[in-house]
Specification:
Shape: globular
CATH class: Alpha Beta
Distance between the termini: 44 Å
Radius of gyration: 19 Å
Helix content: 25-40%
Structural class: alpha/beta
Number of domains: 1
Number of strands: 14
Strand order of the largest sheet: 3-4-5-10-11-12-13-14
Order of helices and strands: EEEHEHEHEEEEHEHHHEHEHEHEHHH
CATH architecture: Alpha-Beta Barrel
Length: about 375
């Protein structure tokens, strides 16, 4: 039986284990979207993971979701990420950058721009952080057909910058109701051009974004994250098996390094496992679940055909997560109060397990 601690090939990399650090927004960059020294320490602390996938990194200014999230669209941003990738590599880790365009899950108070999306349809009752606090997302501006093609190239350009910054590859973010997910969702994509209408139209942007990224940096350096049926950000999928089956059929010939699926119904995930012949990463914990995923969750998915398993909050609170799993040590629970507060508290302050502190005091 496959173990979490078995080695595995991923693209051109040989991973020492099958534990992946999932991408997690932490709001710790500076105001210019630059990676910081604290971010370098944070990722280096977790370098024992088989693979680290960074927090979402915007490819353009208008693609930003929240304040204090990082970018990869300026030379200064590229340079700032080198301290992160160098720190991870110095600790023998591997790290992909997640390229994330927020689409309509954004606000002009943050970016200075009206959000863009497939159609001028606001996400219903969805709040986004802004410099003055949470606000409802506004009605976005629909991208023209020519602008959609330009956004495809923005993913590719950000991927080239990621490699320049020292990342081992990139993950194209097609999950959680952001721009690619908005094109896939029938309630967010009301277009009548080649990027909407039919299933073939709604999947086109995702396929073109992955294809352009593969062309830019090579298939073995590109992954894609999806969350079929999750409904996050009011992106409501319809005809899930048909839509995502058609999407995967178009992606298989492109040969990306992996597909990363966020947890939804088991039946959906198992169906997509059968449709995907390549490497599959499964994230077993729903984004809004109050419960951290466990080693048992990972082993269940490995037994059902996943090749690797990603952990978010468990990795956030346990920088030595692989070692804790290996030795069957207790896990620290993540403190939600420090997820998005900035600063090092709740970011760099989770310690590795210390058996001396856990042992009862002698009589």
């Amino acid at each position: 039986m496959t173990s979490l601690f078995d080695t595995v090939s991923l693209g051109g990399l040989r991973l020492p284990n099958r534990v992946v650090m999932a991408p997690m927004t932490r709001i710790r960059s500076d105001r210019d979207g630059l990676a910081t020294a604290s971010m370098a320490t944070y990722y280096a602390q977790r370098a024992s993971a088989g693979l680290i996938i960074s927090e979402g990194v915007r490819p353009t200014p208008v693609g930003q979701s929240n304040p204090l999230t990082p970018g990869l669209h300026t030379p200064a941003q590229v340079d700032s990420w080198r301290q992160v990738t160098s720190a991870v590599h110095a600790h023998h880790g591997r790290i992909f950058a997640q390229i994330m365009h927020a689409g309509r899950i954004s606000h002009p108070d943050t970016t200075g721009h009206q959000p863009v999306a497939p159609s001028a349809v606001a996400a219903r009752e969805v709040y986004v952080y802004t410099p003055t606090g949470p606000q409802l997302t506004p009605t976005p501006r629909a991208l023209s057909t020519r602008e959609v093609a330009a956004e495809v190239q923005n993913f590719a350009a950000a991927a080239r910058r990621a490699v320049e910054a020292g990342f081992d590859g990139v993950e194209v973010h097609g999950a959680n109701g952001y721009l690619i997910g908005q094109f896939l969702a029938g309630n967010a994509n009301l277009r009548t051009d080649r990027y909407g209408g039919t299933i073939a139209g709604r999947i086109r942007f995702a396929v073109e974004a992955v294809a352009a990224t593969v062309d830019a940096i090579g298939a073995d350096r590109v992954g894609l994250r999806l969350s079929p049926g999750a409904g996050i950000g009011d992106a409501i999928d319809t005809d899930i098996p048909e839509t995502y089956g058609a999407l995967l059929a178009e992606l298989v010939p492109l040969g990306p390094a992996y597909l990363h699926l966020a947890s939804t119904e088991d039946e959906v995930l198992l169906g997509l496992r059968r449709a995907w012949p390549g490497t599959l990463i499964v994230n077993p914990s729903a984004a809004n679940s109050p419960v951290q995923a466990t080693r048992a969750d990972a082993e269940r998915w490995l037994a059902q055909g996943a090749d690797l398993v990603s952990f978010g909050r468990a990795h956030l609170a346990n920088p030595d997560l692989v070692e804790r799993f290996r030795a069957d040590l207790p896990l620290t629970e993540a403190d939600r109060n420090t997820f998005y507060t900035g600063g090092d508290d709740g970011y760099l302050t989770y310690p590795a397990y210390d058996a001396r502190l856990a042992a009862p005091a002698s009589a």
